[in-house]
Amino acid sequence: MRSIGYRNVQMKGDLCARNVKNYARMHDRLYRPGVVGTKEAENVGWPGDWEGRTILALTLLAQSIDSEPAYLEEIVEEILDNCNAGGYRGDLLVPDAINEQQMAGHGWLLRGLVEYYRWKGDGRVRSSIQQIVNNLYLPLAGHFANYPVRQEEREFHQGEAAGSLADKVNEWLLSTDIGCVFISLDGLSQAYEELRDPALGQLLEEMMGVFFTIDFTGITAQTHASLTGMRGVVRMYEVTGQASLLEQALSFFKLYKSEGMTENYANFNLFRTPSWTEPCGIIDSYMLALSLWEHTGNEELLEEAHAIWHNGVERGQRPNGGFGCDTTVEDGHVAIHKNYYEAYWCCTMRGGEGLGVPMRKALFETDDRLQLPLYVDGIYKREQGGREELRVASSYPCEGRIELSVMQGSGSLVHIAMFVPSWALNVKVEKNGAAIPFRLEAGFANFEGELLTGTAFTLTFDIPLMAVPTQGNLYAGSDLHTLRHGLLVLGAARRYEERVNPSALAYAGQGRYTGPDLDLLPLGGAYLLDEATLREQSYQVLFRVGQADD
């Protein structure tokens, strides 16, 4: 099965609003020609980074909302016109002083240029991709064996949200964003998809071989860099079919969940290090979970992706459309990190890619099958089996109701599979208001249906209030719980120190609950608040659970 893709989806509802707000933010001064990649708008010590993330965000957002960016062509031309003699950004490569931040930054530049080339077919851009590979990356062959992958080989330096160079070990200039050189696996793997350059393939094998030996928790690697690197590994699995690559990514994701993920499905910037979340990494974790589900069919991974999106990604978006950092729940609360309200130099731009993912993965199809793993309100035009036009309207995840309507149909008989979370109760499927038989299998309600104009298939289920023990190792044995409306982690706007009796809470709609001295609500609507309120508010998400006299 294949996903329906950008061109055949017209988003509506909340996801559309989020994309539009981020697209507008990406037209502010910091993301315009004459500013991008200059001293006003560059990550110092990260050549190619701001530039690449800007190009990537605008390229993908433009296709998500079907709108031509105001200045993207000029930005691309300006970046390509201002490269060094090697055809890349920053200083020329010095083999005995390799700046891993330059390599990471150009990973994003490669991603941006490849996506732009695929969209526009600009031959100059393709030539630039090849130049960056040839002149910046291929000379690294043989050097990764000297990259420090264990704790005893390097010193720990706690950096800021924008990392900086801290040490030199062997020929490597190391960043406080520990392990960031492996961000470039993402861009290089996508360049390899396009170029199929054997020398690049060999370099990727070398890089992945070293990447898999990293003691991620021992060196407190940056979760964003590690997750991005693993997405590159999964892409190489897709290109080569090498099963061991998928196994490595699955093993890593298990480690990430226990040592790098917060209790509200965001991330620690560094493994095992309470500090701040980073929406770049949250988006990476969402994309990785979805990819791993696609390749394994494991419904737990799909459910994990849903939880990451609605608790982590959505919480990270700000009222101006950008993305910023929160605290990491080490005190049981979620709040804006006082220093990083918006990470405009990285996370805002990564939002441009992340916000387009659900629409690309919301419907998969063959001639006679439809699968809906995500619920994105919108209109979908099928490419296979007919020229049907379908509409999805959903109140999920606050309410368990998803309607799939045939706006234009050919009458073809298809097998339909719609995602059902493991905690869903009283699951039902109806056709035009009448119950029809279905079977639950691998996280989906499966049934047969004819795609006749005017037909509506409706999936409904009840959503329980659940008390879930803490998941990560930070709180192991603490007797603390999150309270959840289905997958939605709920927060209290004021501190509550008593034990919570879930049976004493009454459902108030839209995922909210009320009870004696306690009001709980989902956290994903942060982008609808005003900035002052958002900065000031702290939400308790960890509670002791039981009868008051326990």
UniProtKB/TrEMBL annotation:
GO biological process: carbohydrate metabolic process
Organism superkingdom: Bacteria
Protein name listed in UniProt: Glycosyl hydrolase
